[in-house]
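Quarterly update from the structural biology core.
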Amino acid sequence: MTGEPTAGTTGAAHGESNGSELRPKLVLLPDPEARARLAAPLLGIPLAQRTTSAAREAGFSEVVAAPGLAIAPAGAREVAIGEELSGPALVVFEGTFVDPKLLRLMVEHPLEPDERFSLYDGVARPAGFFAGELGAMPAIMPVSEELDWPESLGPDDIARVVYPEDVERAEWLVLRTEARRSRTSGWRGTETEHVHRSLAGESRWHREISVWTLRWLARSNLAVAQLELLALGVALASGPVALVNSWASLVLAGLLLLLGVHVSRLLAPLRFLRDEAMNPRDEFGRPEIWVPGDTLAGATRPLAHATLSVCLTYVLVAETDRSNVAALVLLAVGGVSALLSLAHARARLRGDDARILELPRSAALIKRLGVTMPSWLQGAPLLEMATAVGALTGEPGVPWTVLAGSAVARLWRWFTSPVP
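Predicted structure, tokenized:
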């Protein structure tokens, strides 16, 4: 920002004597040009509420709302037009989302009373106004010289929703900032890390498939726990469908397994994105063992593998032209595969250490072999994709072999883990 070092230095010294007086207010104005539904949730939370939460977390002193907002954020103080508002303030339209990193810089480097700057979004539209002394509640958005952007920040870090086509731009900004927040909050969600890498352009699968699915899930009115049950039901349905033993049913079973596992992997970042409680507690104040979007979602994959393995084993053993010895071998291998997957699911559901029977990460194995994986496959559920591709042959033994091999791979960590 222009004069940032001077303002930050003098502001720090002045702030010691005036306390919170130098902390800016967030002022929300109704957007007269808005054609989009600003009251609708954006990735699970209304945009005005998401912006005010980010401002409070950044250290803004309060949130002030002008009359006529589409939705008044909780805890905002409504102020009439022309009423005095002394002190620094950031004025934004209610359909504007600002990168929390920029909000923190505004708190850490307050402006001098005579300084004021306009903020423009990525398509050169006025979205905000940052002033060292606002004076009074404005009726329209004030305009001044454009902000001298700090390093690594720019107009793309502000998204103003005016038309329905602006919603996608705001969603991408929210996803990028929330993925960054998840990395610095001490919560290590694997799929959230994948989403962060996708926004950096490292994975086309996450950029074009996972993020699209995450946006669709966030727009739904279903709770994370409900989505968790749906994903589990879809994945488990692959087993009974495979019992029909036809080409179409086998392909459908592979697709159901892929869809259920894919959605279950996205429920943990969805829960973080909706800003739901990360550590829920029961009525006695104890931490909940069953966490929506995490506990059952984490067990969906091994439970679905066990179910499909059992059903495919039955289909193979039921063939009349197979010898008794071959059928016995298939039954033994299929039973062991299902038991290993069930043991992993049991450990996840009980809250035990499930890493011993966890599947080795395919990305780490491929990297160790020195093979370059295509960007559209990076982070994809490769095992389920291989099962679905194997189902295209119409031979139940192909996806059964994939699942049996994956079950044996679960023993790798058990063999290689050091003694506690």
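The chain has 15 helices and twelve strands.
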